[in-house]
What we know:
CATH class: Mainly Alpha
Order of helices and strands: HHHHHHHHHHHHHHHHHHH
Strand content: under 5%
CATH topology: Sodium/glucose cotransporter
Amino acid sequence: MGLNALDFTIIAIYLIGITLFGMRFRKRQRTLRDYFLAGRDIPWWAITLSIVAAETSTLTIISVPGLAYSTDMAFLQVAMGYIAGRIVISFLLLPHYFRGELFTAYELIERRFGTRLRTLTSGLFLLTRAAAEGVRVYAVSIVVSIALGTGEIASIAIITVLTLIYTFEGGLAAVIWTDVVQTVIYVGGTLVGVATIIHYIPGGWSHIHQIAAEGNKLRVFDFTPTLWKPYTFWSGLIGGTFFTIASHGTDQLIVQRLLAARSQRQSALALVLSGITIFFMFALFLLLGLMLFAYYLLPTSHFGTPDRIYPTFIVTKMPHGISALLIAAILAAAMSNLSAALNSLSSSTILDFYMRLRPQTPEDRKMYLSRLSTVMWATVLFVLAVLSLRSVGHVVEVGLQIASIAYGAMLGVFLLGVLTRRATQNGAVPGMICGFATEIYLWQFTHLPWTWWVAIGSLVTFVVGYAASSLSKASD
């Protein structure tokens, strides 16, 4: 079927409209507190939707349906761990973040250990967040190139430039409030997509259920006692919990949103509710994959990669207008995530590095450098996305794997800081290095699924860090 003039008009209106909406927040940005924490005046419900937007990127929208299409519903077990991890963060880490005026997650590390470890943790965040985000930006090029017929590099450039404009101007306030709008758009768009697919399949949901059952795609729980399958109940609950404590408790991308809440209680409420919302959204995207399987009944190789199945359906099968809405929904997810990444990378760059070297910098100079840093990171992410064009398979798994490489070492250090009094900077540094090296080894030289990497890496970091701290104190 393809897109027509109406579809292109709707997509253009969305892209221009959301960019102009985000730019409205520039006048409120007078200090770094405004630019990076939105004045700490964001209501809990907006933070909830913003966390959901940050977590459900384009990778989720196009790749999770592809997972269900090619396998089953077992990925949902990971989302169970996502909820448990948020509960742990609410009791374990949030109280520490709301003691004092913190801007980044890594200031907590300096307060507990010292500047050397803060530099190490924030530097690791910058490297791995940029790498993971490059894959996410690449993912949207799949959709844009299929929908608009532009080349993948041009598609990456379009989304990067438009997102940069309002993030540059409006800071975190623009990020969060555009997230709210974009979350509503892509959830609504996905529901419309589900209803449309059901309408297209003779027999509706009962026929979809029959085909999915015959294809063994309805399985959610897998209690197999093994480490070597990526999605079992054990890897989902344990691995998902550790992954979430790291991603939402130590990653500036999410911690920055939590710090923007009006109080610790509102921050915790937003965090836990976002986990429940994510669970149901993952279930929705997996069901969408089952519906696509019932509609096509074709091998994934027919589409090139599983990630192209849903975008292909939108462009070729959806009625005009609805297809544009769904493309806009996917672009909404992409822009939400990219804007959050740009602002968090910029905040860590300025606050964790520059301000420590130049603490007396005037406020207007800080604002100028913060915006300049945002432009710099947009350029870096564009380059990394272009380099990711050779990615194959499920891009959602590639993105999660890249993030997991650092999360174990990061979480181990934070746990050393909040759970022990004996740990020292001299002990935590070798612990973090060992934990990171372990995760590199798991990634490159084993077939252990990514769902276990964070748990193992954090355990190694904690044990080595604690032992090294004890030895260093004994030798003093």
